[in-house]
Design a protein that fits this description.
Elements: H1 2-5, H2 8-13, H3 15-34, H4 41-66, H5 74-91, H6 96-121, H7 125-143, E1 149-150, H8 174-192, H9 194-211, H10 216-241, E2 244-245, H11 251-263, H12 275-294, H13 299-324
Antiparallel strand pairs: 1-2
Amino acid sequence: MENIKQNPIVKKLGFNRIILFCILVLLYAAFSAIIPGFAGMARIMSILNYVYFLGFLALGVTFVIATGGIDFSIGPVMFCCALMAGYSLNTYKIPVAAALIMSIVIGFCFGLFNGWLVAFVGVPPFIVSMASMNIAKGLGSVFTKTQSVSWPQANDPDGRGWFRSLVKVGNVPTGLIIFAIFVVILFILMNNTKPGRYILSLGSNKEAVRLSGVNVRKWQMLAYVICGTLVGIAAIFFVSAYTTVQPGLGDTYNNEAIASCVMGGTSMAGGLASIGGTVIGVFVISLLQEGIMALRMTKEVQMIITGLIVIVFVYADVSARRRKN
């Protein structure tokens, strides 16, 4: 096993990511063999619809976890963005483009708020994320008067459903192309830029980075701002793939996004993150969600499986760190 891990190609790609990709392939093969029509285009498009918004959530929280922090508010904040922007679109008749921008701005503001509290005020990330989760739920409910919000369909007579082309045009998954572009940009940001290196360094040894003269507060706050902005984008892809958004929801997606990060090799202790690994983890979670639904199992079963996955991969991460030390 150690000889395999030391192989140059394996070291380049990452042993854990290779294993996770193999799990993804095996899961898809198993579901395709068990469930009739699972390999059809309809199922693939359904999986991708889930991948898009969950992917942006997971990519965002990857930056936060890399600093040694955590954010459990991403799911409710995504719903808050979708609710407030959608309500403004329907009630105040703002243009669709303005509603989409509004979603991103709301996510950005939550990221800025969370980052300021963690980096400059010194509130523990766990407390900040719990508070923001409740604020997002309450704000979305109050703004929409506790009503569900429906975004325009693709065949809207006023042509307001054009934003759904962000996800697909016919059978072409345009959302996958957009998502891939963001993945490449975020990969470069994390691994080949000064902000990315500082964000990772904060998770490794924050005090050492501070003593070297780096403004750790600025870079720590940046991680939350990136996360919040990506959450706003996730809301856009959620409403582009689905129709109705209900107040007070979104908690489930926190766990799934964090599970995707941990499965992909991002350490909960900080200092180690993998954009590519997170993407594979997102596909695994989305595939599980679709497979469990196709098998007519309940959502609770998926929650149990997701929780067990998190425990297993966190344990693997802790064990690897112990061996390394």
